[in-house]
């Protein structure tokens, strides 16, 4: 800045300038102030511009990154354009340019979106993955055969296809394996398969029949089950009612509302139940006796009936 100011001062203070204004002293004075004013204005505008320029370049230097330095390298914060590009972010085209090897590499890098390694990329494009034998097994016949199978002759590079043909002993082995593992002829195998299928179908049919037969009985089974459940429930209910009746009887005996958890109550209940059981036993005995008597009578009648068969049939009807 100081240089610019000095330059203006030099221009306006030089003797040539003064010489020029010598003819009119008033004018000179006026012009000197005028010139100084101009100098100040110019100086301010120039200073301002350079200041802006320097700040913008400074900003650029600090904000350079791969997103705003589009066609260039971002080095130490400043964007260095590739050939054929210009501008602060190298965003403008500056004309035609022949591609060099370096540029092509750059382009290939930009096209490399998958970021796959070369081998994987080759496999993806159905090309043999390696250009040379890198590992020991790449040199084996087995691997070469696989490459031939997958990628055709280009998978072999310079190995002749004939080299991969199995040797005589390998063929022998293979034939023996076939003989042992699959001893039947094709026709025999077909017959076996047909038989197997028939057997399978027969089994399925049998099972179907079984299921349909059982399904026909399902309703009956369900009814039986429901009847069984109902009977059980009725039994439980009867037992409950009986017990309630017993409790009621005991209460009536005591004459007041006694707690069923009371020991006295329990005692009474046990006694009552015992009596009940006894009564039942007697009843059973009686009925047994009655049945026995009936049998005896029947026997006697049968004996009579041998002489009077007409009478026994009538009695039997009764
Ligand atoms: C970046 O700047 C530093 C000093 O600020 C310098 O030592 C270095 O060499 C520069 N790097 C490049 C690639 O220009
Ligand atoms: C693509 O990029 C990946 C990762 O940067 C690299 O390993 C691979 O070699 C590149 N592929 C090609 C064809 O340049
Ligand atoms: C049963 O008795 C009646 C007479 O009371 C007689 O007419 C009838 O033939 C007798 N039946 C038999 C099977 O003896």
Q: What is the string of SSEs from the N terminus onward? A: HHHEEEEHHHHHHH
Number of helical segments with 4 or more residues = 10
Give the termini separation: 149 Å
Radius of gyration: 61 Å
* Distinct ligands: 2-acetamido-2-deoxy-beta-D-glucopyranose
Counted beta strands? 4
Strand content: under 5%
Largest sheet: 2 strands, antiparallel
Element layout with pairings:
Layout: H1 2-13, H2 15-20, H3 25-63, E1 72-75, E2 78-81, E3 85-86, E4 92-93, H4 101-111, H5 118-124, H6 141-151, H7 168-181, H8 186-254, H9 263-305, H10 309-317
Antiparallel strand pairs: 1-2, 3-4
Helix pairs in contact: 1-3, 8-9, 9-10
One 2-acetamido-2-deoxy-beta-D-glucopyranose binds at residues 75-76.
Concise account of the structure shown:
The protein has 318 residues and is mainly α.
Describe this protein's structure.
This protein has 318 residues and is mainly alpha-helical. Among the domains are: 2-62; 117-183, no CATH class; 218-303, no CATH class. It has helices at residues 2-13, 15-20, 25-63, 101-111, 118-124, 141-151, 168-181, 186-254, 263-305, 309-317; strands at residues 72-75, 78-81, 85-86, 92-93. Strands 1-2 form a two-stranded antiparallel sheet. The chain has a two-stranded antiparallel sheet with strand order 3-4. A hairpin with a 5-residue loop joins strand 3 (85-86) and strand 4. The protein is elongated and about 165 Å long. The model is unreliable at 51-61 (pLDDT under 50). Bound molecules: 2-acetamido-2-deoxy-beta-D-glucopyranose (NAG) (3 copies). Residues 75-76 line the site of one 2-acetamido-2-deoxy-beta-D-glucopyranose (NAG). Residues 108, 112, 115, 117-118, 121 line the site of one 2-acetamido-2-deoxy-beta-D-glucopyranose (NAG).
